[in-house]
Amino acid sequence: MQTLKNKFKTLLFKLSPRLAISWGIEFPRKSANRQFLENAIFKYLDTWLNTASAQCLFIGTDKRSWHYRSRFQAKFFTIDNDPGKAIYGDLRNHTIGSATELTLQYERDQFDVIIANGLIGFGVNERDQCEALFAGLEAILKPNGVLVLGHNNGPSHIDFKLEEVKNYHLLEEFVPYANELDQPRYVFGDHIFVFLRRADRPQ
Ligand SMILES: C[S@@+](CC[C@H](N)C(=O)[O-])C[C@H]1O[C@@H](n2cnc3c(N)ncnc32)[C@H](O)[C@@H]1O
User: Fold this and answer.
1) Is residue 192 part of a domain?
2) Which domain does 132 fall in, by range?
3) Is 78 exposed, middle or buried (0-12, 13-18, 19+ CB in 10 A)?
4) Percent of the chain with pLDDT over 70
5) Same domain for 46 and 23?
6) pLDDT recorded at residue 1
7) Protein residue closest via CA to atom 3 of ligand 1
8) In a domain, 132, yes or no
9) Taking a C-beta distance cutoff of 8 angstroms, is the pair 137, 98 a contact?
10) Do 24 and 51 reside in the same domain of the chain?
11) Residues 134 and 180 in one domain
12) Atom of ligand 1 nearest to the CA of 116
């Protein structure tokens, strides 16, 4: 029965994503890393985003994540460079633009939380693109803000290590120490989540 339901939902997203969204349907069959993001990580982010005055940026929009826009009380912003993905973005605060030019779209120190999942290795694949991405992320993240980076580093995605990207070091990894999150990074095959904050934040 569940399999049949999931087949129907998957088909609906193929035929009419707009209808699937208007019916409030979540894309089924979530991978282990997607479940970890939606459960453990979002639970941790609740402590940051459970107020309407907080601001969150979610980079890259997709059928798998369209429902995140109403997950938090915070003001939610989305950005994707593919106009066809705008349907999955926030209703009021979606931008069609590149994650490699974030400072053109957002203010310095604007965001309490930024989630960049499935971007590196899925469009931002070159080292110089990553340099531009991390420079922008550091600029628009609040000094005490949190960046959740979910990226693929298998050879079929990127052919360098993120640690080799100079601007990656504008940020530093940290352990959240909340909701059983006691590591700075969590690995699911070649998909990795890393908790980052600004290296120059006030102590
Ligand atoms: C694998 S999907 C991940 C979507 C979403 N972040 C999630 O977790 O469900 C990758 C998305 O990144 C977008 N993307 C790729 N390069 C981009 C760029 N330079 N700027 C903004 N979005 C980009 C693609 O258009 C695609 O929608």
Assistant:
1) yes
2) 31-198
3) buried
4) 100
5) no
6) 67
7) 118
8) yes
9) no
10) no
11) yes
12) 6
| Residue 203 maps to a domain | no
Residues 165/187, Cβ–Cβ less than 8 Å: no
Q: What is the model's pLDDT at position 154?
A: 76
pLDDT of residue 86: 97
User: Residue 187's pLDDT is what?
Assistant: 96
Ligand 1 proximity of 118 Cβ (cutoff 6 Å): yes
- 132 sits in which H/E element: helix 127-140
Q: pTM of the prediction?
A: 0.96
CA 78 to chain centre: 9
Give the pLDDT of residue 3.
85
Pocket test for ligand 1, best of 34, 122, 156 (most atoms within 8 A of CB): 122
98 lines ligand 1 (CB under 6 A): yes
Residue 1 CA to ligand 1 center (angstroms) comes to 32
85 CB near ligand 1 (under 6 Å) = yes
Whether residues 59 and 89 fall in one domain: yes
Domain count for the chain, please give it. Answer: 2
Q: State whether 68 and 121 are in the same domain.
A: yes
Report whether residue 69 contacts ligand 1, using a CB cutoff of 6 Å: no
Strand 111-117 vs strand 141-152: parallel, antiparallel, or unpaired? parallel
Residue 67 sits in the same domain as residue 117: yes
pLDDT < 50 stretches in the chain: none
DSSP state of 99: G
